[in-house]
Structures are given as structure tokens and as C-alpha cells.
Request: fold
Amino acid sequence: MAMISMTNVTKQIAGKNILKNVSLSLDANSQIGIKMAPAESKILFQLISKRMQPSSGTITTNTNNILYELSNDGLYDNLTVKKYLTLFNKIGTTNKNISDYLQEFSIADIWNVKIKKLSIDQKKRVSLLRMFILSPELLLIESPLANLSDGGIELYLRAMKFVKDSGITILTTSHYIEELLLLGTDVYRYNAKVGLEKTDISEESDFEDDNSNTDKFQPQNVFKVACKLADKTIFFSPDEIDFIESINSVSNIRIGEDYYPSALTLNELEEKLAHFGFYRCHRSYLVNLQRISELISYSRNSYTLVLKGPAKEKLPLSRVKVEELRQLIEA
Amino acid sequence: MKLSIRKINAIFQLKIQSIFTNMSVMVAPILAIGFVLIMKLSMPKMVATGAFLLGFGVLFNAIMGGIMMGSYPLAEEKEKNTLRVLMTSSVNGAEFIIGSILPSILIIFIINIILVPVAGIPINKIEWPIYLIYTTLSGLISILIGYIVGIYSKNQMQAGNLSMPILLIFTMTPMFQMINKTVAHIASFTYSGTIIDFINDMLLKGYSLNFKNIAILSVWTIAGIVFFIYAYTKHGLDSE
Reply:
């Protein structure tokens, strides 16, 4: 049975749509990530935890034991980690023996340290353990990895795996898709026009197979991408396209602010567009190299490509691809 | 709304710890004792009588301290987003309020007792039951005023700005009473004025329970509770 199911949930605040047409079914003991803005994420958490009623649509939750954490949640700086966690253990009903979990959450060495002296990596793990000792069935977390160091991310992910293995369902949100990819979850994107969409992430191995096909390449000087819309078929020149994104197994051509679905798969498009300066920067994205304006590195493991144009669209770039991309551009 | 003693106890312990580590809250009780001591040692005996010193100390502790203990910690919790964490961890508003009012009342109560010997008043001259009830009640009224300020402010800075005028009006009641008879008459209807009148009467004339004092304190207490409940139900503790 689904832990939460949301059908066409819309929430308006002060006449403005914050969330629109959100439909989601989350199974027990699963873990998903949703790409959405912080304001949307806050409202989504409040809706799921029943602190707020939706404007329309229905939300059914299978549990009342829901905890959520927003990225700016605070800890009591003047308490030590031990006092802080003991406080929440008293508030909770299960009364766990906290010292059993210090290894899993990598905080044994800071047990008697005041919270104000901790790094953000350590604070995030303390916060995760705080939620864990309250034994929720569903955990909603906003941007858990934001601002964390590489080492911090590794330890946090280990703690998070422990939480999930204990039977807790986890939903994370982030403004950046690469953060959700690091969490290794199914990724959904929230789009104000169409609601939630699942982003396809094919296995890395499939992708390598496709690369070997490039040997059979046939030069094509003329190629237009065909998109069928209602009874019309629209042809786009490769140079018009900003990027192509795979959503629910459909390749969507992004031009300006609009998406056009194509009948071809991302792999087929990649093959056809490689010689027009398109590059597969990520499993779900094919980018027009001419449209790239910036490459940003948020941490050593995550890179983001920023495209030209008013939307300043951001695409994830796999770590393994950075060098390859540099060579392509600089050659 | 269900109340859990376990959660109230957890909040109580948290607040006790945070009061002792937060100097901005402890400053009023410490100042109360410090000022009374300094004035007793430095001012001529004619001016710094026992009644003057004790009245001054109680105003600082119960009125100023109460308002500060109500407003600052609540505003700090809101500013640092720690209140939201408690609220999402199944602690409800009533549990939080009870758990946080109790330590403040306890401190005000203890300091009010300590002030008597510090002001150099013989212990047998104090009508202890009435003294403790009146001063604790005025502490409670101040804490409620402080909470109302806390509910309407977003951070400690704003809480400071909002509470300062209220705090000055009530703490300086005895000075207003010196201006003229009309002001003195009006001031005698404030809860701080009542406390000063009571202390003066008790130490200078001998005090017997009178209806006016009891009525004023009861009205202030009820008004404090009503306004607090109004502000709480309308805005909640953590309105965003």
C-alpha cells in the first residue's frame, strides 16, 4: 500500500499557484527525490504532514508519523550533541538508546561537543539522527546535501542508507537535480505547467554501449528534428535547439521556454546530432554545445552547465564527462 | 489539545539550560540583585530605605525580568528556526508554553526571596505568603506580556524594540508616581504600581489584605491570559 498518494494537488497562496497538479504515489520503504524550488518544497512538506490543507486535490497518507526538515532548520547552539539528542529522545515515544547509533551517523567523536562548534556536515548528521530517534515512518528532507563537503556527503549518504534500511520512507527535495542524483534515488521534476514528471535515468552500462556505435557514423549534412504536435509535424534545425531532455522515456526538445516531444529516443538523437555539436552531458540530457555559457562546480562531485538565454537553464554534468567535454570545446 | 508531562518536562529542562547560558535573559535578575546591593552601599540611608530597595529589586526582577524572559527566548527560537523543529517533532504549543513559563517563574520566585536579605530587611517583617503570591503573580503577568511581544516579533532585535517601551513604563512606575497626584493615581491601577504600594505599606505601615490590590492583580492576570490566548490563536507561536 502506498505511504502517500496525492492526486492533482494544487495549492494557492495569496492568489498565486505555489503547487499545481501534483500527483504522486510513494510506496512504503522507498526513497525518491523531487526537483523543486525551496518555497514549493516547504508547502509540499506542510501539505503532506497535514499542517496545511490543499486548495484542491486529495492527499491520503498512510501514517501520521511524519517528520520534515527544511534546509534552514536550526539546532540549539548552546547544547552539546549529547544533551540535544537526549532532549529529543525524551520528546519521542520510543526511548531509543542513542549511543547505539553513533557509529552509523559518524558522530561518536563529537558526542560531548557544543553544537555551535560543529561543521555544517556534522550538524546535518546530528539533525538526521534527531529525526531518526523520533522513529518517523516518513521523512521529508529539503536539500540535505547543500553546502556539504565531499567527505560530508559520503558520511551523510551512509547515515541516510542506514535510516532507509531501518524501514523509513524518505522523500528529499532539492533545487538542483545533481543533488538528487547523488542521493541515488528516483528523480521527479516539478514543473509549474505540467506538475510532477519522472526523470528517466538509464543505467550507466547502456550508455557505454551506445558510445561504441559512434564508429558506424554516417556523415549527414542535413538533419532536422521532427516533432509531432497534434496533426502537425514541426521540424527544428539543430542550431535552434537548446537541449534535449528525456522525461518519462520521451525525448523532449527544449527551445526557448517550450518543450516539444520527439518520436526518437535520446540515444537515436544523440547519434544523429553528434556532428551538429550536441553532447550527452548526462544520462537524461543532450546539450547543444553552442548554447553553453558557463560550467559551475558546486563540489568536486557535481558540475552544472549553464546555458545562454534569459532562462539561464541549468543542466547536470556527470563527473566522468567533465574532461571529455573540456577537450571537445577546447579542441 | 493533549498535554504530555514527558514533553513538558523535556522542554522545562531545555529552557532551564538555555536560561543559564543566555545572558540576555539572566541580565534582569542579576541586575536586580546587583543594583540593590550597589544602592544599599552607596546611597544615604535616608533615601535607600528597605522598602525603596526591595520595591526597586522586585520591579527589576519580576517586571523587567518577566517581560524579557517571555519575549527574548521565544523570538530567539523563531529567529534561529529551532521552534519549528520542536513543533514538527510532535511538541504542541501548550506544552512548549507551559514548559518554558515554569523555569522563568521559578527564577523570578527565587530571586524575589533572595532580594529580601539583600535589601537588608529582617525576614520577620515580610508577610511571606502575600509577598510571594503578589510578586509571583506580577512575574506571570510580565511573562505573558513578554510572550505576546514574542508572538508579534520575528527576531530578537524586534522583540527588544517592542518590549522596551512596555518595559520602561512598568519598571518606572514609582518615578511616574512622583510627578503628581493624578499620575500617581493612574499608576496605582497598574500591576507594578500595586506591587510598589503593597511593599511600601507592608514595610512602613503594616499591610492588611485590601480589595483594590487583589482586584487589580486579578484583572491584570485575566487580561494577560485573555490577550495572550487571543494572540496565540490568531498568530500561533511561529507565524511565518
